[in-house]
Design goal:
Layout (H helix, E strand, L loop, with lengths): L1 E6 L7 H14 L3 E5 L2 H7 L26 H9 L4 E2 L11 E2 L4 E3 L27 H14 L3 E6 L1 H23 L5 H6 L4 E6 L15 H22 L2 E6 L6 H10 L3 E3 L10 H14 L5 E6 L12 H12 L3 E5 L12 H19 L7 E6 L2 E6 H16 L3 H8 L6
Parallel strand pairs: 1-2, 1-6, 6-7, 7-12, 8-10, 8-11, 9-10
Antiparallel strand pairs: 2-5, 3-4, 12-13
Helix pairs in contact: 1-11, 2-4, 4-5, 5-12, 7-8, 12-13
This protein binds adenosine-5'-triphosphate (ATP).
Length: 420
């Protein structure tokens, strides 16, 4: 099997560990391994330049051939930013840096050495408009067949996994079209009649259904906790209140768990909108009580997508004004923004992608035209496979339920055992 991996959508810590695990597990199980740079955009653009010749590194010279670095120069340049890093041939400059003319790159064992400890995604990610079109996916299919790749691992959010499913469903028709256009031979069409696809969820929001934890969420939570610890020093010294806005979109997981681990006084999450006409009283009464029993600092956490029961967004600046005006607290707003995404993955964002990466390769090796595309998840601490589209459909249903104000439905879709 020739397998390729790409990272797509928003970056998250642990994506590099996924790439490392998939490449290493793939090689150990006898596969040829490739990375696709810049997400689906790289698949669409493919390779317009021949692979440069590169010497195996000293450390890999004694290894079997496919354990060696095959692209050590390319990958090292990608990491350290010298040499071949040029503007892309088309004039676009996606993902910061690109290697001229090659988006689908063969990699060996050494190429991904130590990647578990690196933040973000070293192979780049992008949001590709072209891949949303049939023409784009036709080009992507051609580029994969050209390199002989028959299996794809996609690590991204629900959008990326939807794209993966669309691609696989359309694949037979794309192959027929490429053959009819004379771009691929009959032998190539026959050898590539089935595309094996598996998805891994890389997202800091932890908003995917049918899995307990997404890759990157533990690190984002850890970053928020560190920020709270820093804020607490000044809050306690000056007896201040802080209103902290955290990421998470429709999902309150980051806000809720940060609140629990950082000792917040009040937390706003999208799944439990407070009554629009009484939440200010409720919040002030709660914080007043805490102050009366001697707390010198106050922390209110607001999830990015927090709303009241009338679906009005709850803004940090408004909460700050309420605390200042009604309780007389010296209140500051801190929006953590992208610091939550960045930095080295915490231990669990190395362990989870490693276990899931190995499972992804096994799922690909067992894939047949009759098996569904799987998403690799984790439930009750066990690595599991679930049908990718079921997980995506469920995630969408949760978002729709929240938009429709049906919060109990949203919660029970996320957790079938949920009770009010
Ligand atoms: P995040 O959770 O960080 O937003 P995501 O994976 O949900 O990540 P999206 O921007 O929704 O991010 O999707 C990433 C890419 O996946 C898109 O730019 C597009 O190339 C591809 N994609 C998404 N939906 C589809 C679709 N329906 N058909 C084809 N491709 C799609």
């Amino acid at each position: 099997m020739k397998l390729a991996i790409l990272t797509s959508g928003g970056d998250s810590a642990g994506m590099n560990a996924v790439v490392r695990a998939v490449v290493k597990a793939g090689i150990l199980k006898g596969c040829e391994t490739w990375v696709v740079r810049e997400g689906y955009e790289g698949l669409v653009r493919g390779n317009t330049e021949a692979a440069p010749k590169s010497e195996p590194s000293k450390t890999s010279q004694n290894l079997p051939a496919n354990y060696r670095n095959t692209n050590i120069n390319l990958i090292q340049n990608l990491r350290f930013g010298d040499g071949d890093l040029l503007k892309d041939g088309t004039g676009d400059f996606i993902g910061g840096r690109t290697i001229k003319g090659r988006y689908i790159v063969r990699v060996g064992f050494d190429d991904v050495r130590g990647w578990f400890a690196e933040g973000g995604t070293l192979i780049g990610t992008a949001r590709s408009k072209t891949f949303r079109t049939r023409e784009g996916r036709l080009a992507a299919a051609y580029n994969l067949v050209k390199e002989g790749i028959d299996a794809l691992v996609v690590c991204g959010g629900d959008g990326s996994l939807t794209g993966a499913d669309v691609f696989r469903a359309e694949w037979p028709e794309l192959i027929t079209a490429l053959h009819a256009e004379g771009r691929i031979s009959k032998e190539q069409a026959e050898a590539h009649s089935h595309l094996k696809i598996v998805g891994l969820v890389g997202s800091i929001d932890n908003d995917m259904s049918m899995t307990d934890l997404t890759i990157g969420a533990p690190t984002a939570l850890h970053r928020i906790c560190e920020a709270i610890d820093n804020i607490n020093s000044t809050a306690a010294s000056h007896s201040r209140a802080f209103v902290l806005e955290v990421m998470g979109r429709h999902c309150g997981w980051l806000a809720l768990l940060a609140g629990v681990s950082g000792g917040a006084d009040f937390i706003f999450i999208p799944e439990r909108p407070p009554p629009h006409d009484t939440w200010e009283d409720e919040m002030c009464a709660c914080i007043h009580r805490h102050r009366e029993i001697g707390k010198r600092k106050t922390l209110v956490i607001i999830a990015e997508g927090a709303i009241d029961s009338n679906l009005n967004p709850i803004h940090a600046d408004y909460v700050k004004d309420v605390l200042t005006d009604r309780l007389g607290l010296d209140t500051r707003v801190t929006t953590l923004g992208h610091t939550q995404r960045g930095g080295r993955p915490v231990a669990y964002d190395r362990v989870l992608p490693t276990l899931q990466g190995v499972e992804a390769v096994e799922a690909l090796l067992e894939s047949t035209p009759d098996t569904p595309s799987y998403m690799i998840g984790v439930q009750e601490n066990k690595i599991i496979r679930v049908p990718l589209m079921e997980a995506v459909a469920m995630t969408r249903a949760v978002a729709t339920a929240i938009e429709a104000k049906d919060f109990d439905k949203a919660m029970s879709l996320r957790d079938p055992e949920f009770k009010e």
